Automatic annotation (TrEMBL):
<dbReference type="GO" id="GO:0033617">
    <property type="term" value="P:mitochondrial respiratory chain complex IV assembly"/>
</dbReference>
<protein>
    <recommendedName>
        <fullName>HIG1 domain-containing protein</fullName>
    </recommendedName>
</protein>
<keyword id="KW-1133">Transmembrane helix</keyword>
<dbReference type="InterPro" id="IPR007667">
    <property type="entry name" value="Hypoxia_induced_domain"/>
</dbReference>
<dbReference type="InterPro" id="IPR040153">
    <property type="entry name" value="Rcf2"/>
</dbReference>
<feature type="transmembrane region" description="Helical">
    <location>
        <begin position="50"/>
        <end position="69"/>
    </location>
</feature>
<feature type="transmembrane region" description="Helical">
    <location>
        <begin position="118"/>
        <end position="137"/>
    </location>
</feature>
<dbReference type="Pfam" id="PF04588">
    <property type="entry name" value="HIG_1_N"/>
</dbReference>
<keyword id="KW-0812">Transmembrane</keyword>
<keyword id="KW-0472">Membrane</keyword>
<feature type="transmembrane region" description="Helical">
    <location>
        <begin position="20"/>
        <end position="38"/>
    </location>
</feature>
<dbReference type="GO" id="GO:0005739">
    <property type="term" value="C:mitochondrion"/>
</dbReference>
<feature type="compositionally biased region" description="Basic and acidic residues">
    <location>
        <begin position="207"/>
        <end position="226"/>
    </location>
</feature>
<feature type="domain" description="HIG1">
    <location>
        <begin position="90"/>
        <end position="181"/>
    </location>
</feature>
<feature type="region of interest" description="Disordered">
    <location>
        <begin position="207"/>
        <end position="236"/>
    </location>
</feature>
């Protein structure tokens, strides 16, 4: 665990903004060539109204910005951990990897779907919109606006089905919980592990680690050790 400072918050915010800007650049790099390609080669695209074309650009831009911003923030957080904090982060990642390896193929699928449900819904809506429009576009007796309305109705119906499926996946048990849908919370021992790896602890401080009556004491112990180190550094 790491105590978050105002500098950490500002650094995280700056990193996410920078990542979002990169995502916007990627979105423009994909949208502009795609616009000219479809405008030149796809007659149905040329007949689409401007609001629908704008929706296509939004559907490309928003995910790019969100994903790049989130990944940049995660990268910044990982970079802030050094020493004991990095060891604790590696320990948690190793636990997650071992837990993942123990899952069956079906459990891995449902776990992945539960963690990426919004991306699945968004991609499914875009795919269903394109598929529905491709189907209704074959009808020569409907105008373009009628085809767009019908395609949107189909896409909305498929989106509802995706939402129901996502809710079902979220409610399914994942991880090593077996067939039980009840997840038993486990105690957070990260403070204890981090303190145990600190080679500067005195005998009295190590004795306090064995006291499990009050988990908050571990945090207080961590803060007192940090103050002791700062005081020692000041005298040096």
């Amino acid at each position: 665990m790491k105590i978050v400072t105002q500098e950490d918050v500002r650094g995280y915010t700056d990193s996410t903004i920078e990542g979002g800007i990169k995502g916007a650049i990627v979105a423009v790099a994909l949208s502009v060539p795609g616009h000219f390609f479809f405008k030149k080669n796809v007659a149905a695209y040329r007949t689409l109204p401007l609001p629908l074309k704008s929706l296509v650009y939004v559907m490309v831009g928003v995910p790019c910005i969100s994903v790049f911003a989130e990944k940049a923030g995660e990268a910044y957080n990982r970079g802030q951990y050094t020493g004991v904090g990095q060891k604790e982060l590696d320990y948690e990642l190793e636990r997650e990897r071992e837990k993942w390896e123990k899952l069956s193929s079906w459990q891995k699928t449902t776990d992945w779907a539960a963690r990426h449900k919004y991306g699945i819904i968004g991609a499914g809506w875009a795919a269903s919109m394109g598929l529905a429009f491709g189907i209704v576009a074959r009808n020569p007796y409907q105008s373009t606006s009628q085809k767009v309305v019908q395609a949107r109705m189909w896409a909305q119906g498929l989106t509802v089905a995706l939402l129901i499926g996502s809710a079902a996946l979220t409610g399914m048990p994942t991880g090593s919980t077996g067939d039980s849908a009840v997840h038993t919370p486990h105690a957070d021992h990260s403070w204890r592990r981090m303190l145990e790896m600190d080679e500067t602890l005195t005998a009295a401080e190590r004795a306090q680690l064995k006291d499990e009556s009050d988990p908050n004491k571990l945090k207080d112990l961590h803060e007192s050790i940090a103050k002791r180190k700062q005081a020692a550094a000041g005298k040096a």
